[in-house]
Amino acid sequence: MLETLARTSLVDDRRFAEVRATSLVARGAGDHRVRHELARAGVAAELIDETVALLPPESERATRIVERRGPGPKTARYLAGKGFSEDVSNAVIAQSLHEPLG
Question: Which of 17, 67, 68, 71 could form a disulfide bond with 96, CB atoms 3.0-4.6 angstroms apart?
């Protein structure tokens, strides 16, 4: 039955992964959260990598959040909770504060 659904495109892992990832990103998710949620849904690792590569860069998404919430420890914790990498969070917050990374 699944083979028939897949053949008729009623079940399409790629489409599912892209729609789910886009939905998560629209709600402010970072790459780690997207990867985790797709893996939890049973999406293959290779397809997860391909899907995440199609998303807007994580740094751009984090920058929009920092612009909206302001830089600081509270925003850094928020970004971490949303699945953004520590490197991206630190870089975006430092850039927002116009401080060099160190």
Answer: 71
Q: Residues 6 or more apart from 25 whose CB is under 8 A from it?
A: 34, 55, 56, 61
Of 18, 38, 55, which one is at a domain's C-terminal end?
55
User: Rounded distance, CA 101 to CA 51, Å?
Assistant: 30
Beta-carbon count within 10 A of 37 CB: 18
The pTM is what?
0.83
Please write the tens of the pLDDT for every residue from 57-80. 999 999 999 999 999 999 999 999
Kindly state whether residues 63 and 49 are assigned to the same domain. Answer: no
Residue 77 burial (C-beta neighbours within 10 Å; 0-12, 13-18, 19+): exposed
- Residue 36: give the domain boundaries: 1-55
